[in-house]
Amino acid sequence: MLFFIVDGWHFCSKASLTFASFMIRFFIFIVCCLMGIVAGAQDTLRPVTDTTQQVADTIPVVTIAPVTVVSYERAQVAVLSKLKGLNLQSKAEFLIQEPKAVAGKDWLFYYLLGVLLLFGALRLTYARYFKDLFRFFFRTSLRVNQIREQLVQSGLQSLLFNVFFAVAFGIYLFLLLKHYKSDIGISEWLLPLTGTAVLMLLYLGKYLFLQLSGWLFSMKTAAETYTFIVFLINKVAGIAILPFIILIAFAPTYLADMAVNISLILVSGLFLYRFLRAYQPVYAEIKLERLHFFVFFLAVEIAPLLLIYKVLVLYF
User: Fold this and answer.
1) How distant, in Å, are the alpha carbons of 117, 212, 276, 296 from that of 191?
2) Phi and psi at residue 112, in whole multiples of 5°?
3) Fewest Cβ atoms closer than 10 Å to its Cβ: which of 85, 204, 232, 248?
4) Of residues 157, 139, 156, the one with CA closest to residue 273
5) CA–CA separation, 301 vs 206, rounded Å?
């Protein structure tokens, strides 16, 4: 019994010593771990302090130059003095500026509008005469002689279309003078009226001259035939020139130049066609040689135009 008691006490004493030794070892382990953590934290903080010191030591020293303060007035004078186009440093000059004279085309627009309205009224009012006029000109019908008789008997229609020819070529001559920059000392709005009046007087004198010549030389039929062909070509020319008048008046320069050239070719062609068209019926009436007819054509058609040109050159 005693043996068991002693043996139990001995076992308990041994177990107590083992637990105490374990606790001592565990406490020493904890202390070592804490010391290691503290030492590691101190080693980690040191390089940061050193790096900051190293960066601070490598920053270069910047020296700021002194800034010169310039006033606004001095800067303005310096800038303006370099602008040579303004010429602000020279002495001011006294100058009276005249208002710019702008040549408007309003009156020309309304004048051409009136010409087109006149043509439209004649075209609608005398539609049959207008149709017969071009049928006889182009000879598209076999009844040429009958159409000619109808045209001859239409005295009022013929007179109105002759007036329209004078009006159309009056404005055409004005536009030619303006295109070639010719000044004859007359107001612009009077030039078309003057040209119209001159053409009407010229062809009235030509009509009276032809009728008088036919009566004096007993060639009334030939004179009437030639007169009819002359005024027929004039009517067609007055109508054909209308598109070119509008282009010359309002188109750009390159189109106006083209319209002038084409219109001059057209007028010259109609003038030549009038000579060729008039020769055959006149020759059938009086058996006139071509040379004699050509001399007559120069005297009646070319000489008056050269005379008008000479007067314009001498007095204007």
Assistant:
1) 20, 31, 32, 31
2) -65, -35
3) 85
4) 139
5) 9
Tokens of 302: 């070319």
Cβ-based neighbour number of residue 137 at 10 Å: 16
- Integer Cα distance of 301 and 226 in angstroms: 12
Asked whether 237 and 164 are in contact (CB, 8 A), the reply is: no
pLDDT tens-digit series, residues 1-55: 433 343 444 444 444 546 566 667 766 777 676 666 655 545 444 444 444 444 4
Residues 6+ apart with CB under 8 A from 309: none
Please, which residues have CB within 8 angstroms of residue 118's CB and are 6 or more apart in sequence? 164, 167
Per-residue CA distances from 159 to 151, 166, 190 (Å)? 11, 11, 23
Sign of torsion over alpha carbons 307, 310, 311, 312: positive
pTM of the model: 0.64
pLDDT in tens, 130-164: 998 888 888 766 677 788 888 888 888 999 999 99
| Residue 178 CB partners (closer than 8 Å, separation 6+) | 188
Angle at 68 between CA 63 and CA 74, to 5 degrees: 160
Residues 6+ apart with CB under 8 A from 189: 107, 111
| Phi (first) and psi of residue 85, to 5 degrees | -70, -25
**What is the CB-side half-sphere exposure of residue 287 using CA atoms within 13 A?**
0
Q: Return phi, psi of residue 100, to 5°.
A: -70, 130
Distance of CA 294 to the CA centre of its chain: 47
